[in-house]
Amino acid sequence: MFLKSITIKGFKSFADRVKVDFEPAITGIIGPNGSGKSNISDAIRWVLGEQSAKTLRGGKMEDVIFAGSGKRRALGLAEVTLTLDNRDGALPIDYKEVIIGRRVTRSGESDYLINNNTCRLKDIKELFMDTGIGKDAYSIIGQGKVEAILSENSVDRRELFEEAA
Amino acid sequence: MFLKSITIKGFKSFADRVKVDFEPAITGIIGPNGSGKSNISDAIRWVLGEQSAKTLRGGKMEDVIFAGSGKRRALGLAEVTLTLDNRDGALPIDYKEVIIGRRVTRSGESDYLINNNTCRLKDIKELFMDTGIGKDAYSIIGQGKVEAILSENSVDRRELFEEAA
Amino acid sequence: MEEKFLETFNQVKVEFEKIFTDLFEGGQAQLALEDEDDLLETGIEINAQPPGKKLQKLSLMSGGEKALTATALIFSLLKVNPSPFYVLDELDAPLDDANVNRFANYLNQLSEIAQFIVITHRKGTMAAANALYGVTMQESGVSQLLSLKVDEVGDYEE
Amino acid sequence: MEEKFLETFNQVKVEFEKIFTDLFEGGQAQLALEDEDDLLETGIEINAQPPGKKLQKLSLMSGGEKALTATALIFSLLKVNPSPFYVLDELDAPLDDANVNRFANYLNQLSEIAQFIVITHRKGTMAAANALYGVTMQESGVSQLLSLKVDEVGDYEE
Ligand SMILES: Nc1ncnc2c1ncn2[C@@H]1O[C@H](COP(=O)(O)OP(=O)(O)OP(=O)(O)O)[C@@H](O)[C@H]1O
Ligand SMILES: Nc1ncnc2c1ncn2[C@@H]1O[C@H](COP(=O)(O)OP(=O)(O)OP(=O)(O)O)[C@@H](O)[C@H]1O
Ligand SMILES: [Mg+2]
Ligand SMILES: [Mg+2]
What we know:
The complex is a heterotetramer, with two copies of chain A and two copies of chain C.
Chain A: E1 2-9, E2 18-21, E3 26-30, H1 37-47, E4 77-85, E5 97-105, E6 110-114, E7 117-119, H2 121-128, E8 140-141, H3 154-164
Antiparallel strand pairs in A: 1-2, 1-4, 4-5, 5-6, 6-7
Chain C: H1 2-24, E1 28-33, E2 44-49, H2 63-80, E3 85-89, H3 97-110, E4 115-119, H4 123-128, E5 131-136, E6 144-148, H5 153-157
Parallel strand pairs in C: 3-4
Antiparallel strand pairs in C: 1-2, 5-6
Helix pairs in contact in C: 1-2
The complex binds adenosine-5'-triphosphate (2 copies) and magnesium ion (2 copies).
């Protein structure tokens, strides 16, 4: 299983719909300060079920919806879909391609989708249960957070090993 | 007043005596990872009276003394001297050049010096009282600490302004 | 649960010692359990010794050495139990040019068993990518995407 | 004490607004007292708006934008009450090449009123230095110093 692409619309600085196609090996993302690179990483965490606004660098979950710019008004909906290649059957679902989706409106309505059918967060978590993917997994390393992996406290370090077990 | 030079011997990775001459404007320090650049910044903090081993990235104050390398044995003494140009008389002492020194041995004896006369830490603090120099001043910004200046908490921020007042 | 933890720990330990030496091109490092009799609660000790240096507290290492040691730990966990994909956001920022190249080489090797999405400003890492995207804000405040050829990078960054 | 604090705050506020706009080449920023009636305890609010963007929480800014905003604050405190010298350890690490150059230009201007010792891996900052030292460990584990000419930098870093 690997990530095929992500589509982002109305999430953080992505006012217009943007699609990133990923390579099965290494995809590089570059660009000036403040252009939106880390927002892509936040979009991946969010669609996989991230519940903490603080981890997404906001104050409340509404902060992930495009808040407007010099020339544009704020939007009312943020939507991210992640397309996974499941030809190896790693995900316990009978599709060669699996599309995970998440939407949130300013009024607070939010829903999750698997292959365009609405579902609960629990269903997404169950889908990824044994794959090591999930919002807490050490597989998404945020900006400036690499040293925290070594963590000062030796007991905190065991969490990494428990997740890998 | 400005820094003319620093001499470091036996402090952290500086087993041999090293002298850095500073420019009145901008002095750049470059080099590979782990070569000893931040140790120079630690040496400046230390000679100005830094009391916390943790701020110097160690566990106890003895950690600042050269602990040995593949080929060399540990040393027993760390010594740093800082030479300041005082032609403008900013420091309340009647010398055109002021040399501040600090020494510490493995057995824990430590002393401070002003122009080669031993003195107390209190004397060094008094010397720098109104200059904005001192170990807490925001004029020494450690590696990875630039964002902490903005600090999450608005009340912590006032400390910067109180120091500048 | 405890057996599983111990088994994973021992596998990661072996990988970590090897990857550390590869990334630093020398030196040595070990992982150790603080209390082998209490597998449920024990903390994990990391001892790392860059080439030519004495064994020291982790806190005394430099910014770049710590980042490279953390990277060795992430890669050793990956080897034992790979996650399908990894997102690394400027992991290479504290590294000097020589270490960026070692990091990029390792990424290349591991990309046979896992997928990487790397956000970077460093040319060494960009060169390891199979595809590159530039994120821009030609219209201020709104992110857009450009697909780049790896050899176009030079003129893009400025 | 309170008058002094208020006077300093107002001076820094004026400088910060100007330096932020210089460093970001546009945009605007303000400092504000959370509670003007309680000068002894009041916190300080920072509002920053990079060019073309809406005013947002500081936490939503990017790594590079935060580093540049923090630099603007340090420089504005310097302008109001300069310390004789500043030691900046890889302050430029989160910045892209364009912002490194703006940072280096500003450093140049301020070096007329204060002395700077900058530790860096970035060529833009090295170019602003009047003298450059390379720290090496030709004998592993032991730091040595080489004095470099600014134009020798290219071959040194590798
Ligand atoms: N809800 C939102 N609406 C509009 N813009 C937003 C929103 N949330 C964040 N942003 C903008 O996104 C920008 C930050 O983007 P991001 O952190 O992805 O930058 P980056 O490319 O990673 O930069 P750096 O190289 O400095 O790390 C900020 O300028 C911020 O104002
Ligand atoms: N007491 C000591 N004795 C010997 N070596 C020491 C001592 N304390 C620290 N060191 C060594 O100094 C090195 C760290 O140096 P420093 O932090 O100055 O590196 P740096 O040049 O800033 O690197 P980077 O670019 O990665 O930040 C470490 O490798 C550490 O082992
Ligand atoms: Mg970023
Ligand atoms: Mg350093």
